[in-house]
C-alpha cells in the first residue's frame, strides 16, 4: 500500500469543503501529460473513466477505472477487469488535529492475465 498526504496548514476549510473543491476540479489535478476523463460530470459509484498516462520515452498508456465508493470526504476508484494492476485508489480528506489532510492511498497488486 502506498500513501501520500498533504497537510493543508493555514486553511480554515472543513474536510468536506476541501474534498468538494478537489472533486469539482479532479481532472485538472492530474500531472501534466496525464488525463482523467469521466463518462459523466459527477463522479458517483458505477461511473467509469478513462485514464491516459504519459510514460518514459514518449509511451502512453490508456486504461480505465470505475468509481467504487463516494461520500462527503472520499472517493475510491477500482481498476477494471483486465487492467495491469488489480486494486483500489482512495482519494480522501480528513482532519488531523486542526489541520485538514488530503490523502491518496493506493492498494494494488499485479493483475491476473
Instruction: Evaluate the radius of gyration.
Output: 15 Å
Could you give the distance between the termini? 21 Å
Residue stretches low in confidence (pLDDT < 50, at least 5 long) are none
Question: How many distinct helices?
Answer: 1
Major sheet details: 7 strands, antiparallel
β content, as a range?
over 45%
Q: Strands, helices and their partners?
A:
Elements: E1 2-7, H1 15-24, E2 35-38, E3 48-54, E4 60-70, E5 74-79, E6 85-96, E7 99-110
Structural description of this entry:
The protein has about 110 residues and is mainly beta. It has one helix and seven strands, in the order βαββββββ. The chain has a seven-stranded antiparallel beta sheet.
List key phrases describing it.
mainly beta; 113 residues; 7-stranded antiparallel beta sheet
Question: Nutshell version of this structure?
Answer:
This protein is mainly β and 113 residues long.
